[in-house]
Amino acid sequence: MEAGNKETFLSMRVVGSHGLIFGQLYVVLFFFPFAITNDKTETRPWEISNLEAIISFPGGESLQAFILVTVLVEKAAAPGIKALVLGVEAILQQSQDTLLQALQQLRLSIQDIKRALAQMHDYVDPDIFYRVIRIFLSGWKDNPAMPEGLLYEGVATEPLNYSGGSAAQSSVLQAFDEFLGIRHCKESVGFLHRMRDYMPPSHKAFLEDLHSAPSLRNYVLTSGAECCLMAYNQCVEALTELRSYHINMVARYIISAAVKARSRMLNHLSPHALEDRGTGGTEVLSFLKSVREKTMEAILHPAA
Ligand code: HEM
């Protein structure tokens, strides 16, 4: 399929039930469209070689791997999400031991996510990501190439504007931020909260529950327990490292790839207007660096 057929292709991806809005959603692209490739699935580990994406659009093996690495990242996050629930229970019960256990489990999960993400470099070609995959993932909100949005024939009479499929629509890192009490700047919060509208409603509700749960930071500071403070800071450090790693990946897959594409005169496949934008529509590096800065600033210092 030619890149020019993007609108036709994407209009097939409309989802209209279960409270999800119409658009090209992370949850549709990365939660459902994979299968385990052989009958011995029960005994085989969840590795790229045992998995296969069951949807297909341009990008060949790089596209397959892009989907599967993202699935593996979500899988690595599962123990981290369980740790948040354990952590909130620990605070409610004032149980330091359980909280320590939860924080350790969360740190390990964040480190596993980073390892899973690293597989992107092994399997996904930056040139193909930049020229092909990214174009198909991009949306029609904050996208200068489609300023008026997209007309959903038979659904609305006016064009609608929706963001593309971005991992910013995953609830994982937003859940970690809520639990750890990391507060982002106004502009970032605006984007991140908007991404919640693209999540399954239960994920969005989970984030809101975490936000209104008793504050972990207050508990750690008022308990005066140095072991809890250290364990909390280790989680914040691991999350900062994960975000730094992700920024480097973005530099390789978007920034350097754009320079390369320009020098090879391949711009006709990749609209200028999208060069410095993510599929969610952000101006990539300033947003991601601000999110990392605010993560780093959450480090707690022992009371004097
Ligand atoms: C080639 C791989 C990737 C590239 C080029 C990339 C690029 C980007 C970009 C440009 C943004 C800014 C928001 C936007 O406009 O979309 C973003 C945000 C984000 N991405 Fe990725 N991404 C990649 C893979 C992933 C994966 C596999 C995950 C994990 C599920 C992930 C997690 C996030 C998160 C959570 C955000 C929101 C910012 C934050 O909380 O730090 N990304 N990504």
Overview of this protein structure:
The protein has 304 residues and is mostly helical. Helix content is 58%, strand content 2%. It has helices spanning 6-11, 26-30, 60-92, 96-123, 126-137, 172-180, 186-196, 201-212, 216-223, 226-263, 284-296; strands at 34-36, 51-53. Strands 1-2 form a two-stranded antiparallel sheet. Helix 9 crosses helix 10. It is globular. Residues 69-70, 73, 117, 120, 124, 129, 166-168, 170, 173, 243, 246, 249-250, 253-254, 278-282, 284, 287-288, 291 line the site of protoporphyrin IX containing FE.
Q: Class in CATH?
A: Mainly Alpha
Strand content: under 5%
Shape: globular
Hetero groups bound? protoporphyrin IX containing FE
Give the strand order, joined by hyphens, for the main sheet: 1-2
- Overall pLDDT: 84
Major sheet description: 2 strands, antiparallel
The low-pLDDT segments are 1-19
Radius of gyration: 20 Å
Roughly how many Å apart are the termini? 63 Å
CATH fold label: Methane Monooxygenase Hydroxylase, Chain G, domain 1
Notable traits:
304 residues, Methane Monooxygenase Hydroxylase, Chain G, domain 1, two-stranded antiparallel sheet, globular, disordered N terminus, binds protoporphyrin IX containing FE
Topology:
Layout: H1 6-11, H2 26-30, E1 34-36, E2 51-53, H3 60-92, H4 96-123, H5 126-137, H6 172-180, H7 186-196, H8 201-212, H9 216-223, H10 226-263, H11 284-296
Helix pairs in contact: 3-4, 3-6, 4-10, 5-10, 6-8, 9-10, 10-11
In short:
The protein is 58% helix and 2% strand. It is an all-alpha fold. The chain has a single domain (3-296), classed as Methane Monooxygenase Hydroxylase, Chain G, domain 1.
